[in-house]
Amino acid sequence: MVKMKTLALIAHDGKKAEMVGFVKDNFEAIQRFKLVATGTTGRYLQEAGLKVKKVESGPLGGDAQIAAMIVEGRLDGIIFLRDALGIHPHEPDIFMLLRLSDVHNVPLATNLASARILIQGLSSETSTNSPDRRARRGKK
Question: 63 catalytic, yes or no?
Answer without folding.
Answer: yes
